[in-house]
């Protein structure tokens, strides 16, 4: 998108070039490193000007609070309401009840689900469940939003709708990193695209290598 995950380009490309020497390197590998689920030695990846390799284990939870993550399979709690699902990261962060209520409703409004707060996720369509996952990622007002195959389980119309949502978030200053195999969906989007094939950078729409 406008900014590439808040990562300095040279550091990101260097990280990908190191990764491509490994046969298992994938887009998911990059996402895992970005949210500090793995901190491989020798890679210098900056997220919001912070070197992920230097984050202590104790500080990783606070670092992740600045990131929003959208999963392909939603990762929703089906025994909780839509409101409770979206509120989860705020509860973990220790936000006040008033702040939680305000942010949850604002996030649901952004994804077109305001008024569905009390519904259990199981009663929603697949597309709506994905929107709940996006609202949950947005509720803490992250600096960076990371999406792993966010349209992988959706039909073409819903996929286009979700990507339009992401584009709107980017317009108001949210940095996004989206991993997808749906090249046709993003082919004409006016944002930077890195294409990986078998762990190697095959193309970069910005022309940088």
Topology:
Blueprint: H1 9-19, H2 27-34, E1 46-47, E2 50-51, H3 60-64, E3 67-70, H4 82-93, H5 97-110, H6 126-138, E4 144-148, H7 156-171, E5 175-179, H8 183-186, E6 194-197, E7 200-204
Parallel strand pairs: 3-4, 4-5
Antiparallel strand pairs: 1-2, 6-7
Helix pairs in contact: 4-5, 4-6, 5-6
Mean pLDDT: 77
Q: Provide the gyration radius in Å.
A: 17 Å
How many H/I helices? 8
The largest sheet, given as strand count, sense and whether it forms a barrel, is:
3 strands, parallel
- Structural class comes to alpha/beta
Structural summary, described in words:
This protein has 209 residues and is of the alpha/beta class. 40% of the residues lie in helices and 13% in strands. It contains 8 helices and 7 strands. It has helices spanning 9-19, 27-34, 60-64, 82-93, 97-110, 126-138, 156-171, 183-186; strands spanning 46-47, 50-51, 67-70, 144-148, 175-179, 194-197, 200-204. Strands 3-4-5 form a 3-stranded parallel β-sheet, sandwiched between helices. A hairpin with a 2-residue loop joins strand 1 (46-47) and strand 2 (50-51). Helix 4 packs parallel to helix 6 (126-138). The longest helix has 16 residues, at 156-171. The radius of gyration is 17 Å and the shape is globular. It starts with 8 loop residues before the first helix and ends in a 5-residue tail after the last strand. The model is unreliable at 1-13 and 15-26 (pLDDT under 50).
